[in-house]
Amino acid sequence: MSRRPLTLLTLALACALGALLVWLAAFSVPFGQRLDVSALAAFGVVAQPRLEPSIHGVASLANLLPLIIIASALVCVALLRRRWLMAALVPAILLAANSFTQLAKPGLAHRRIVELSGVEGVYPASWPSGHSTVAMSLALCAVLVAGPGLRPLAAVLGSAYAIAVGYSLVALGFHLPSDVLGGFLVAATFTLLGTAALARLEGLHPQPTSSVNVAPSRRAGAASVPRSLVVPAVVALTTLVLGGLALLAHHPGAAGHLGGKPAAALAAIGIAALGVALTASLTLALRSDD
């Protein structure tokens, strides 16, 4: 990971600008505000009494304890790979991204009053979502620490984890969709900045790795990457299909309700697309240096 810090910095700038655009759309553009509220209302139908404990369980996967456990595991992986700088930077990335989110909320947000089914909800400082920042920063750090052979799998599992957390937050009414998108982009910005710093430092001070004869194997490794994506992609798609079928079995009216709400469809697609795009972009950026 000794080359291309400029590419990583460019991606970080793009994510920062994306976060700014999401914030502007959510707070200053009437259409964006209506889209946010409509999507929140449609997502809320999923959080029925029978499903709410499970949805709460998904959201809790980005609480403090899971953050500490997963972060510790990622540091251990980096240490096992003998990437000492990486092991030190992963906690720094997680701390910076999530600290920024908590500090930015009061300054970037103002009172948003949302009326759902005659009940008013107030979102005074919910942008960007802290849980979404946690989930995406962990997902991207998992991509960072994974070896070249496991990186596509880490990207698939990490994006699925972050997307699931984001969906659960909106379904429970804890956050608006724009909050989730903002949290994803903040996490990506800091992870890419940290990865660029890592690339620069490792370029100045090359470190030994567990890989042997890396250069001759690059072509073979690059050719095998698309094939290695097949199994995790099938697993992810199967999980999504089974999860959707389970949801419909518990609440058959959910499909009709969501299908009749274009705003919900746009929000769902936007959260999923951004989650996949961020992990895939980091995977491709790192692949060039494997």
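The above is record 1. Record 2 follows with the same two-line structure.
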Amino acid sequence: MKKLFYIVGIIAVASLMSCKKDDDENTWETYREWREANRTWFAQQETKLDKDGRLFYEKVAPVWSPDEYILMHWFNDRSETAGNLVPLLTSTVSTCYIGHLYNDVPVDSSYKQVDALFNARVSGLVEGWQIALMSMHVGDTVQIVIPYSLGYGSSATGSIPPYSALRFNMSLKDIPAYEVRP
């Protein structure tokens, strides 16, 4: 009898895994044009120039995965915020932001909230935000571009389709819970 339950369990798990694989393949194929448009747009942002002919964005890679990166542009003079706190992965931050898809469709904004502040633990955010926040000082205002692999990946969330590159304008206002390294 135990063998029968074991076999039934294995079959059930295999069926679920097969469905998941089929769902992933269907999503991949269904969003092929969207995925390519997002990939092309991200590549264009990598070469975008400012009014002086310099690259608009800086590539910022995390130490834990140096081959992956986001694009960041600081709007403020970084020397003015250089002495301010930088959040750690375990910190809770207060930010203001507005996010867009590659085609400028807005997807989310802290300005919909009463006080316009979004508070979150850095470790609970998508990797692209983690990289950006841990590269910022309190008082910095930036624009970040996140490839889908460091955003929501192949999953849809809210009004964000799978395989979406994202652009955020954000300000790091405060670090209300700064965790000190031991």
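Strands lie at 58-60, 70-74, 92-101, 106-109, 118-121, 141-146, 166-177.
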